[in-house]
């Protein structure tokens, strides 16, 4: 079963995506901030990570820096899922090897699921 980690501080949004991905047959785990997200990724070893940028405790860029420093997270595809426009995103993000950048307000959960499946070569 394909595993997805969703690191997102808005519980309504993370639950909405969890329901969509579980309905599509994915194993989904959630973390509500970057610190827990790093711990989740290390323990869960997901096939793909959906990562918000603006979160308490540790933001998405800081979390991704730690994930990329470790063997278990070096090559895991990461999709940034945020409401920050791409032009507002920290420049450092590009050097951390993200697969794609999605503005939450612009896509439905079905469209996000489509992007995830494309990233995992499932379609």
Describe this structure in words.
Strand 3 (about 50), helix 3 (about 60-70) and strand 4 form a beta-alpha-beta unit. This protein has a 5-stranded parallel sheet with strand order 2-1-3-4-5, sandwiched between helices. The chain contains 5 helices and 5 strands; from the N terminus they run E-H-E-H-E-H-E-H-E-H. It has a single domain (about 5-120), classed as Rossmann fold. It is α/β, with parallel strands linked by helices. Helix 2 (about 35-45) packs parallel to helix 3 (about 60-70). The radius of gyration is 13 Å and the shape is globular.
Detail the topology: elements first, then pairings.
Layout: E1 3-7, H1 11-23, E2 27-31, H2 34-44, E3 48-51, H3 60-69, E4 78-82, H4 92-95, E5 100-103, H5 109-119
Parallel strand pairs: 1-2, 1-3, 3-4, 4-5
Describe this protein with a few key phrases.
single chain, 123 residues, alpha/beta, Rossmann fold, five-stranded parallel beta sheet, 40% helix, globular
User: Cα distance, first to last residue?
Assistant: 15 Å
CATH architecture: 3-Layer(aba) Sandwich
Number of domains: 1
Q: Report strand %.
A: 15-25%
Approximate shape: globular
- The helix/strand class is alpha/beta
N-to-C SSE string, H for helix and E for strand? EHEHEHEHEH
Number of strands: 5
The helicity comes to 25-40%
Number of helices: 5
Which fold does the CATH topology refer to?
Rossmann fold
- Spans where pLDDT lies below 50 across 5 or more residues: none
Radius of gyration, taken over Cα atoms and rounded to an integer in Å:
13 Å
Major sheet, described briefly? Answer: 5 strands, parallel
At the first level of CATH, what is the class? Alpha Beta
Q: What does the average pLDDT come to?
A: 93
Q: Any idea what the CATH superfamily is called? A: Response regulator
């Amino acid at each position: 079963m394909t595993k997805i980690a969703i690191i997102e501080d808005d519980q309504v949004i993370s639950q909405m995506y969890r329901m969509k991905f579980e309905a599509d047959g994915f194993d989904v785990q959630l973390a509500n901030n970057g610190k827990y997200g790093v711990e989740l990724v290390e323990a869960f070893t997901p096939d793909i990570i959906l990562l918000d940028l603006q979160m308490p405790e540790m933001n998405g860029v800081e979390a991704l820096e730690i994930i990329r420093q470790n063997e278990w997270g070096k090559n895991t595809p990461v999709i940034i899922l945020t409401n920050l426009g791409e032009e507002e995103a920290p420049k450092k993000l590009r050097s951390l090897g993200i697969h794609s950048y999605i503005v939450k307000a612009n896509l439905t959960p079905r469209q996000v699921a489509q992007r995830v499946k494309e990233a995992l070569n499932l379609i």
